[in-house]
Amino acid sequence: MDNVFSEIKSRLAMPEVARFYGLEMNRANMACCPFHDDKTPSLKVYDDHFYCFGCGATGDQTGFVAKLFGLRQIDAAKKISEDFGLGLFDREFAAPIKIAPNPKYEMQKWLGEARQTVKDYLTTLYKWHRDYAPRNQDDEFHPLFVESLQKIDYIEYLQDILTRGSEEDKRDLYENGKADIEKIRKRLDDFDNVQRFEKRKAI
Ligand SMILES: [Zn+2]
After folding, report:
1. How many angstroms separate the alpha carbon of residue 65 from the centre of ligand 1?
2. d(Cα 51, Cα 43) in Å, to the nearest integer?
């Protein structure tokens, strides 16, 4: 049984495990730490362990999963074995373990995705504002230009919260802003589909 941990270490690299459970790393394998309120990436993912320069959190592959989901080491090992199909416990334990999601982690994950959505939409709005601005005084406003006029302020405000906001503002957005972010995501998806359609027509 004590081989289970070393087995996991030898079969899965730390970055692979971290990525699988939603940690977003930059090219230097630095990430925003899910174990404290981290605004800039201070958690470094090494090949066989992680270390946070902000809060000192550290551990190996199993330790990471244990911390993230609030599990005992052995349960974390079971989860990894199941999620990666390693089959390390197949003979000994038939019953799958139930995981209660870590609410703090859920929020950080949601905020990360929201940040990306808002950034994508804002980039698109700036582009529309530039590309569809009326050239002559009498031109009718293009609908995408109108959308940029209506939305840019609000989306900049959301981006401000998501990048520079206080922990309280972020929590407030997490609790009350889900519908808004969902709408933005849907707007981007719809626009993507239209673009794909237009491209097909052009060919
Ligand atoms: Zn930390």
Report:
1. 14
2. 6
CA angle 23, 24, 26 (to 5 degrees): 135
Coil, helix or strand for 19? Answer: helix
Are 173 and 158 in contact by the 8 Å Cβ rule? The answer is yes
For residue 21, the 8-state DSSP code is T
Which residues have CB under 8 Å from 149's CB, separation 6+? 129
Asked whether the beta carbons of 23 and 45 are under 8 A apart, the reply is yes
Q: How far apart are CA 83 and CA 65, in angstroms?
A: 11
Residue 77 alpha carbon to ligand 1 centre in Å? 22
pLDDT band at 182 (very low <50, low <70, confident <90, very high): very high
pLDDT single digits (tens) 30-70: 999 999 989 899 999 999 999 999 999 999 999 999 999 99
Single pTM value for the model: 0.51
CA of 68 to the centre of ligand 1 (A): 12
Collect all residues with Cβ–Cβ distance below 8 Å to 39 and sequence separation of at least 6: 32
- Tokens for 133, please give them: 């601005």
- Which two structure tokens, joined as six digits, stand for 46? 């090494």
**Which residues have CB less than 5 Å away from ligand 1 (the ion)?**
33, 35-36, 52, 54-55, 57
